[in-house]
Amino acid sequence: MNKFHIRIGLIALGVVIGIWNFYILGIEWIAYQETKRSYSQTRALIQFSQSIGDFVHESQKERGLSAAYLGSNGDIEFKSRLKKQRLLSDKKFLALLQRVRTLSRYSLPATFHQSIQMSIEKQKQLGDIRERVFNLEISASEEIDFYTELNANFLGLLPLSAKLAPTREIALRLYDNTLLVECTEKAAIERGTLANIFAAKRFEPGMYEKVISVHAIHQSCKQSFIDKASNNERNLYNSYFSHTLFQDSHRIYEQVLSGDFSMGATKWFNHMTVNIDQLKTLHERFDQLLEEDLSRLEKKTLLKHEIFLVGSFGYGFFMLLGAIYLVQQMFAMINTLRISSVVFDSNEGVLVADINGKIMRVNPAFEKISGYSESEVLGLTPALLKSGLNDSQFYKDMWDSLINKGFWNGEIYNRRKNGEIYPEYLSISAVRDEYRNITHYVGIFSDITAKKENEERINRLAFYDPLTQLPNRRLLFERLEHALVKNERNKTYSMVAFIDLDNFKIVNDTKGHLVGDDLLKEAGNRLLEAIRAEDTVARLGGDEFVILIEDLGPSREQAFKIASDIGSKISLSLQKPFEIHEELFFVTGSIGIAILDNYTQTVNEILAQADTAMYSAKESGKHTFRFFDSALQQKMLKKLECEKTLFNALEENQFQLFYQFQYNHQNEISGAEALIRWFHPERGIVSPTEFIPIVEENGFITEIGKWIIAEACRTLHEWSHDPIRKKWTLSINISPKQFLDESFTSVLLDNVNRYALPPSLLRLEVTESLLINDIEKIQDIMYHLKSHGFTFSLDDFGTGYSSLSYLNSFPFDELKIDQSFIRNMENDPHASALVRAIITMAEVLGLEIVAEGVELAEQHTILQSIGGIHYQGYLFSKPVSKNEMQSVHSHESSDV
Ligand code: C2E
Ligand code: CA
Ligand code: CA
Fold first, then answer.
1. Distance from Cα 675 to the centre of ligand 1, integer Å
2. Which residue among 192, 593, 611, 653 is least packed, with the fewest CB closer than 10 Å?
3. Per-residue DSSP letters for 527-543?
């Protein structure tokens, strides 16, 4: 239903009420007008009656004077009076006619008008009668009868008009008036009859009987009036006639009957006229009273109508207003209901409960979410939805809020009919009546399972590593912050272990990311298994993991002990080979541990410490754990600093190759080893043991390596011009990264070709750490280089796997016994036995042997006794620059 319909409805209602009201008002208005007209008509009728009275009064006089004139047989005095009287009669008749015209305005019965016309017709005969009276051609009796008939005609109109009165009371009053007028007429007839007799002084034939009957009629008329009149009228009548004239008239009548005519016609006439005039005055007085009463009655009646009219109008008006108000209220209610029904049919569950919590109504969404139909829950309480996940305090708080504040909202876990627990956002409002008493509760809720899941997902993305599902860096930082605060409060220690998987990069690069990813997942799982549920394993990215373990207790020693146990446990957990896609991988972990002991530490500091410790674990051969110490940190910082300046060193020509000569069994120089030196502008000469591991780690070694090869080849080229030196070999150290670099072979070939050097003079030293990589690839490269004539030397033999079976698999030409064996051999027979065994075996394999780090003559002597090998060491010469090389060379024979 829209606004247009509402307006049409309102207008229709207004019209109905308006018409009805108008109808009532109309009827009342008509009644009002009718009353008014009726009273006006009555007034006109009364005036008409008065005119009749006036005319009849004069006609009566004319009749009497005519009778007297006839009786006197043409007396001149009566004649002149009669003339005057006739003029008066005519005047009153004219006035009467005037009234008749007025009456025509009213719708009076046709019979009434006919009667009036008949009377007027009768009057028209008057002229003829008057003529005959003047000429004395008419008897008194006839004359009197004519006038009487004429008057009777007019007087007969009076009861007719009385009948038309608006009320019975008025009608009765008018009848009374009529009766009085009739009595006047009887008196007048008597006056005329006796006047004739007095004038004639005898009884004309028939007059005697006439007098008797006229008098009797007059008397009975008076009596009948007195009998019928109301008290008021009677009193009024008596006050006029109690002791005066008509008593005399009866006496005079008696005299006349006895034949005494002495009184004379004039005297009689005058006497009787006084009486009749009195009657007329009384009649007029009656009319006046009647008119007054009529006016009063009219006013009263009209007032009633007016009050009713105004009342009806007001009533109708207020009814219309009331109807409009009611209709508006109704539409407002319909609107409210419609809005309520929309709310009720919304996607949110709605539950209405009474004051006792009994469910009274639920909506379709409630049924959908909870799984209960309305009929199943009516009369029960919402407790049937309880999941048990919210404790009693939760519900207590809810009710407190509802009773005190009138509402509650929040998240709550409820149970569906099928037993499934789901989270919902619920708001409950208390409904109060006009006295502020709670009457109902309305609960509106929405299922927020999807929302929660989304939140959870977002939370996961923000705080968890998508690959391993372990906490990410951000969450780790949060937990670390938390742990720092907790340590300080509880005076307890915690630990952070930084774990870097050894060799992971190689697996990842060679076996692909799928294998790498699975390996990382598996590593994460193993770490999780190694610790307690409340501890944190986070992945920082790549193959870096961090473990946070809290509550190691208040004792520092105890904390270190536990941390060290945990360190071994972690290390052990990663030691077992990883089986990924049915292939085994040996990926151990280097672990750095930092103890959170001091609450001034920041999260970044702690992680940096663990990181540093992890590097130290890596440096000490990997697959182990190390605690952080500040000396170590200093070293790491230095390393960092070093790394930064190293990048410029090549461009700035800060590198230089030093050469350490190698000697043969006959103490002749057989070759040299090129050893790099870094001339740092501030620090002076930096040892390769310090910077080689750094550039090896960051890959810069391949660039430096190219420079070394070029530089070594330049030296060989210089030597090639000298007859002795041109047979010397030059060994260069090749780090694994450099060896595996794609450009390695081509760089070597380019350089030897440039100087047309025999590649066999360039000896490539590699360590056992190279050989644990992809064996086949290394073999391929080695055999390829070998085919070009390059020779290979296995450096630092004895420090690594020291497996002789390796030697068989690769085309080595030379083996360098690590100086750690040589250093102790003069004191330690075990060491010299070992060296002897190595030399014997190498000879079997056809390898040349170099003993490194020969410092003492004793060492040289022992070695010489074992067999024909080469020597390199301070005893012979230290590594020297190219410039210094000349002097070493020239002294070679004399020194040894
Ligand atoms: P390395 O290959 O085992 O080199 C021999 C090291 O022993 C040299 O140290 C040398 O000075 C030292 N040495 C020689 N005779 C004696 C001795 O009688 N007593 C003692 N105590 N030491 C002796 P240096 O030059 O400091 O080189 C250290 C390591 O740095 C080398 O060990 C090698 O692994 C690496 N390195 C040096 N130059 C290069 C290079 O050009 N390329 C690569 N990749 N590594 C290099
Ligand atoms: Ca070497
Ligand atoms: Ca060596």
1. 6
2. 653
3. HHHHS-TTSEEEEEETT
